């Protein structure tokens, strides 16, 4: 028999070596083709080592090591059918291959240590090869079950070849485990078995187009194969435990081990038929071993496009309709939490939620906040145990044909709920449907939050515009009041002076125009646009100074040149009046305030200077031109200097400020001179 065994292994080595030469001659450089070549060479090596062992009778451990590498290489080939890679490196570092090789390495190391620790007892090595060959059979079963007809036609010779060798070795090592030794009649036949399988591998290689085949394993296949693998591993563990009990237990060991194995089988059966365990296992397998049911990139882009292109009366309507369309339902509502006990229906379509639902929504709100779970009403009716601590009036929900309740979270804060209703044959949601609904709900929650914030911002801007308009109007009224104060102050002294009477009528006329302007702004709820007229700036400065000189210190006009330019005289009068008043208020009565006007061909420069309290550089940079920021308390509005800068900039001028605390301030207004 030794001669037969040597010849069989040698023949297998030669056959697979010839197969490898054919693969090299084909010059196929795809990943699958290159890996088949590697698998073939490992098979050549395994057969060659086995032949040499028969000839020279060295330890079987070297043959088993070569066989283990051969099994691993063919297993990686099977796994490569479920990944898309371009290089061998990518193949070896793909998730499933890394997972397989990691477990394979751990098993090899554990069995090697156990074997050497127990004085080269081969039982653990036999058990290792039982497990490795069982694993190959499971992988082949997954591969073939998941392939379509065309792919099955291409791979069935490969499946038969590898399965035949795996089954033969499984029987060989299983028998060796039970009798604590290898049946060498089987052992010497292994070389002939591998030789007979080589032509089938050659057929598969020729059938695979360009050395590549794509097979995506279905969820059901992996589920049932995983159940098979788990059950097998569990029974192996129970058998090992029974063996230990039998070894330790003496006379009673056999009885105790049998009872233990029976109890273990009962426990396994109970676990396998437990619905919750099966559901959790399905979700775990689907999440970790498969592409998603939904292409989230496409779903995300479709949602964004829908939000950008869909027109609706309100953002609540748009969000509700999007959620309804995702599940093909014809009714829905969005309910917003006002308080923990009060909810507001922001929008409803095809669904009427009366006051009876408020208490139900309170219960749902509490449940959704604690569990973060979508409530499937029909699932709740059929299996209420899946929704712990939730108690609903089922008849009330079924009467409205409500199918789903999807919570809305913005960040971690609970916003409200989508309540969706429709036909009675709504399909139950699986975990992927729920994940998609949660993702869409979260995005729509952010969408609603953004629009609500925009609405509040728009409302705030309306109030801000109204407040700003009011501030400017009050500022205008102050100027009118200052003009009228000037009349009453000089009335007793100059009432019999005809020139004074003429000035009074002119001032009253100006005040009337200003008041008409204020009333027009109030009616239209917006500031009236200024009108430009040709104004003598020097004369305007004279009028402002005359009005301001009713208080101390008196304003001195140091230099003034005639300057005619088009601008809004009333606004410019108000600006100069405000700046000069500020200078007077910042200066002691025995101080001085000066105004000068210098004109050349290109620009007019108005300088207002004083020797008052002055300002710091920080105040000028951060507060001076900031609207509604005043140092006068309730006496000022904080918009005079801001209005001055806005007006000067609007006519392409500029305003410069030089100031030093305790020494005074100088405002310089530079205006462009335009030809009339």
Explain briefly what this protein structure is.
This protein is of the alpha+beta class and 676 residues long. It is built from 23 helices and 12 strands. Helix 1 (2-26) runs antiparallel to helix 2 and helix 6 (123-146) packs antiparallel against helix 10.
Layout of strands and helices, then pairs:
Elements lengths: L1 H25 L4 H26 L3 H21 L7 H5 L2 H23 L5 H24 L2 H31 L4 H4 L2 H18 L11 H30 L4 H21 L1 H15 L6 H14 L5 H13 L3 E7 L5 E7 L7 H15 L3 E2 H6 L11 H6 L2 E9 L2 E9 L9 H64 L3 H27 L8 E4 H12 L6 E5 L4 E4 L1 H17 L7 E7 L3 E8 L6 H8 L15 H11 L3 E7 L3 E9 L4
Parallel strand pairs: 7-9
Antiparallel strand pairs: 1-2, 1-5, 3-4, 4-5, 6-8, 9-10, 10-12, 11-12
Helix pairs in contact: 1-2, 1-9, 2-3, 3-5, 3-6, 5-6, 6-7, 6-10, 7-9, 10-11, 10-12, 14-18, 18-19, 20-21, 21-23
| Backbone structural class | alpha+beta
Order of strands in the sheet with most strands: 2-1-5-4-3
Number of strands: 12
The radius of gyration computed from the alpha-carbon positions, rounded to a whole number of angstroms, is 46 Å
**Proportion of residues in helical segments:** 55-70%
InterPro entries: HATPase_C_sf, HATPase_dom, His_kinase_dom, Sig_transdc_His_kin-like_C, XrtA/PrsK
EC number: 2.7.13.3
Organism: Thalassomonas haliotis
Keywords: Hydrolase, Kinase, Membrane, Phosphoprotein, Transferase, Transmembrane, Transmembrane helix
